[in-house]
Amino acid sequence: MKCIICREDLSTSIDNHVRAHLSVSEEEIYGYFTEIVRPYKTALYNITATDVKRGVVYFSMENAMLFIAYAERYHGLTWHECCEWMGLHEKNHLLLRKLYNPPAANPHIISNVEDYYIEKFMMSQKYRSVYEANAKLIIEIRRMMAPFELYSMSRSIRLYHCLTYACWHALDAISADDVILPQHELKFTLKASSIMKEIEGPDELYGAMDFINKLSMSMLKV
After folding, report:
1. How far, in Å, are 31, 67, 91, 117 from residue 95 at the CA level?
2. Is the bond preceding residue 102 a cis peptide, omega within 30 degrees?
3. CA distance 103 to 101
4. CB 189, CB 181: distance < 8 Å
5. Can you give the pTM of this predicted structure?
6. For 121, which of 10, 13, 20, 79 is 20 to 30 Å away at the CA?
7. How far apart are the first and last CA of the chain?
8. Distance between CA atoms of 155 and 68, rounded to whole angstroms?
């Protein structure tokens, strides 16, 4: 396995290796993230995500370290900017739920359509480069995976991949050429992207999510 930061073959764990690329300590990262998310609670977890029912923002230190190291080296971003974007984005998921109620749909659909709305209408443009750097990192990670790793994943994970591409494409962060998917999944992804682009306010979120959910069942058999 190669390090996505320095491209060297790893002889130690990825987490220990990435620490060597960081300009900041884990304590500083988590402390700053916690401040950004206030007054909501934070907790360490294996992914960074928001529990909207409990009002808790979960934070993955491993993912954050990798992103910060990558963003600093390849995009000239500071760790403060990365933490601010991560914290404000997750915080906005909680604020957005005060404006609408989601339909009964696949949670990946709900979270990614919300991601689109948050980045389009709620986040400051000064974090646009941070958002794009995160998308590019994930694309690079997926490209490093062997084809059988990508295509042997569960249908739920495949749907998640499609929807992240759809969100990035809808926000013009990537082009169709950056999307690595079989033809039927690419067709669904571009359709989902076009639906997201039509959203203009929180009152349109429910309908967009419901439509994409129905499309996913007919086009992907998820």
Report:
1. 21, 25, 7, 12
2. no
3. 7
4. yes
5. 0.92
6. 79
7. 31
8. 30
Which pLDDT value is given to residue 176?
87
Task: Summarize pLDDT for 171-192 with one digit per residue, the tens.
Answer: 999 998 888 888 999 999 999 9
Kindly state the tokens that stand for 133: 């750097």
Q: Where does residue 55 fall: left (phi above 0), alpha (psi -120 to 50 degrees), or beta otherwise?
A: left
Residue the block writes with tokens 């992103």: 67
Rounded mean pLDDT, 32-40: 97
Side-chain-side CA neighbours of 96 within 13 Å: the count stands at 30
Which residues have CB under 8 Å from 157's CB, separation 6+? none
Contacts of 174 (CB under 8 A, 6+ apart): 135, 139, 165, 168
